[in-house]
Design goal:
397 residues; 4-stranded mixed β-sheet; 2 domains; 8-stranded mixed β-sheet; 10 helices; Nucleoside Triphosphate Pyrophosphohydrolase; 25% helix; elongated
C-alpha cells in the first residue's frame, strides 16, 4: 500500500472505532462517535423513515456511497433482521467502494466486538473483486461494487433503482467531485418516487444543489459534533409544484433543400439524435435549451454548432408547443418547445450512425438520417415531438 493510502485505526468519543485516511486527510466517521453518527444519520433519519412510507410487501433497496468500514451496512443488516418476520421486506443493499479495506485493516477495527454486529468478515472478503456479493439471509442480499459513483450512476438500467441512499462520501473539501450538483441530479434519477437520501453534510451549497435537483430537503438535528444534517426526499410526480419555465428549441434538419418557398421535399431524410439522457436511451430532434440573452433562432444556430460542429440554414417555424407540458426530467418545470425547419448549406461533416444508439466511445450521443416519409411518432421518445412531427407532415401536403 502506498504511503498516501495509509489508513490508521482511531478511537472515537463513544468508544467505537474509525479509520483515518491519509489519502483524504479525514476519518471515515465522526471523531465524536462513529457508532452514534451512523445510527443517527443513516439508520434513524434514513432507514426508519423510508420503512415507514414503504408500500406493504415492497422490497427496500439501499445504495451506499462509500462503504468504508462497513458500519452502515452491518447496522442496516441488523435493523432488517430485527424486524418481525411476517412484516419484513426483502432487502437489497448495494455499496460503492473504489478502495476496499484490506484484511489487516478491517481486522484491526474489531468491528463486530464494539458494534455487536457480526458479518464484517464476509463484508470485506475479496477486496480485489470488481463485484462482491453476500447472501445475508434468504430475504437479504449485499453487493459491493469496486466502482466510482459517476460510473455507477451512468448505467442506463439503474433509473429509479433505489429507495434509500446513504450519501456518505468524504467531506466536500476532500472529495469535491462527489458534491457537485450533477451528483445530486444523478441521485434523484436513481431514487424511486418517495425515495430518500440522507447525508451528514448540511452545507448550504449541498442543500441548494439537492433542491435544484428536485428534492424536498429537510434540515434535521445533527449527530454529536454537528448542528445539522440533511434528509432529501424525491417527491411523487403528482406532488411536484411548478416553479419555472424551460424553453427548448429544436429543428428538423433535412438533407434536401426546401421547395415552394419553405416546404420540405417529401423525399428528404431528417436527422434524428439518439442520446443517453437521465439513465435511458432517447430519440429526439437536434436542439436544446434557450439561454439567457438569445432568441429561439439564435438558440437553434448555437445548438447546431455545439452538437453538429457546423452551421445550419434555418427555415420557417413549424410548431410551437400549444398545450401544457411538464418536463420529463424535472417535475417542477413547464416546457415550451419551438421547432424549425433547417437545411445544411454545406455537406455534412459530422458522424452519421447506421443504427440506433450507436454511440462513439464515451460520447453518449449519435446522429442518423431517416426517411421523412417513414418517420413514425413511435420512433420519437417525447410526446412533444409527436405534435411537431404532425405539424411538419401538414406542410408536406
Amino acid at each position: 500500500m502506498a504511503a498516501d493510502d495509509q489508513r490508521t485505526p482511531r478511537s472515537t468519543s463513544d468508544g467505537s472505532m474509525t479509520l483515518h485516511s491519509e489519502r483524504f486527510g479525514q476519518t471515515y466517521h465522526s471523531r465524536h462517535g462513529a457508532l452514534t453518527e451512523s445510527l443517527h444519520v443513516f439508520l434513524d433519519a434514513g432507514w426508519s423513515e423510508r420503512l415507514s412510507s414503504l408500500e406493504s410487501g415492497a422490497p427496500i433497496r439501499v445504495l451506499e456511497l462509500g462503504l468504508g468500514t462497513g458500519l452502515n451496512a452491518l447496522l442496516t443488516r441488523k435493523a432488517h433482521a430485527d424486524l418481525p418476520g411476517g412484516d419484513r421486506p426483502a432487502l437489497r443493499y448495494e455499496a460503492l467502494e473504489p478502495h476496499p479495506l484490506q484484511p489487516a485493516e478491517w481486522q484491526a477495527m474489531s468491528l463486530s466486538q464494539w458494534s455487536e454486529v457480526d458479518g464484517d468478515v464476509e463484508l470485506h472478503a475479496q477486496p480485489e473483486a470488481e463485484c462482491h456479493e453476500v447472501e445475508w439471509a434468504p430475504d437479504a442480499r449485499f453487493v459491493r461494487h469496486r466502482m466510482e459513483w459517476q460510473t455507477f450512476a451512468s448505467d442506463r438500467d439503474r433509473r429509479a433503482a433505489f429507495d434509500l441512499i446513504y450519501f456518505d462520501a468524504f467531506a466536500p473539501d476532500s472529495q469535491p467531485e462527489l458534491w457537485l450538483p450533477e451528483r445530486f441530479a444523478e441521485a434523484f434519477r436513481l431514487l424511486s418516487s418517495g425515495g430518500i437520501l440522507v447525508t451528514y453534510c448540511a452545507k448550504g451549497a449541498v442543500r441548494r444543489a439537492l433542491i435544484d435537483a428536485g428534492f424536498r430537503v429537510e434540515r434535521l438535528p445533527g449527530p454529536p459534533g454537528k448542528r445539522e444534517m440533511l434528509r432529501a426526499t424525491r417527491p411523487a410526480w403528482e406532488d411536484m409544484t411548478l416553479k419555472r419555465f424551460n424553453v427548448r428549441v429544436y429543428f428538423f434538419l433535412l438533407d434536401r433543400p426546401l421547395i415552394d418557398g419553405g416546404r420540405p421535399d417529401p423525399e428528404s431524410q431528417v436527422l434524428l439524435s439518439d442520446e443517453f439522457l437521465s439513465g435511458r436511451d432517447c430519440t429526439k430532434l437536434p436542439g436544446g435549451g434557450l439561454e439567457f440573452g438569445e432568441g429561439p433562432m439564435d438558440c437553434a444556430h448555437r445548438e447546431a454548432l455545439e452538437e453538429l460542429g457546423q452551421a445550419i440554414e434555418l427555415g420557417p417555424l413549424v410548431h410551437v408547443t400549444g398545450n401544457f407540458v411538464r418536463s420529463a426530467w424535472r417535475g417542477e418545470e413547464q416546457v415550451l418547445c419551438h421547432y424549425y425547419l433547417a437545411t445544411l448549406p454545406d455537406p455534412a461533416n459530422f458522424r452519421v450512425a447506421e443504427a440506433r444508439f450507436d454511440y462513439p466511445g464515451e460520447d453518449l450521443e449519435s446522429f442518423r438520417w431517416t426517411p421523412l416519409r417513414s418517420l413514425a411518432e413511435s420512433e420519437l421518445t417525447f410526446g412533444v415531438d409527436h405534435a411537431a412531427l404532425a405539424a411538419l407532415r401538414g406542410r408536406i401536403g
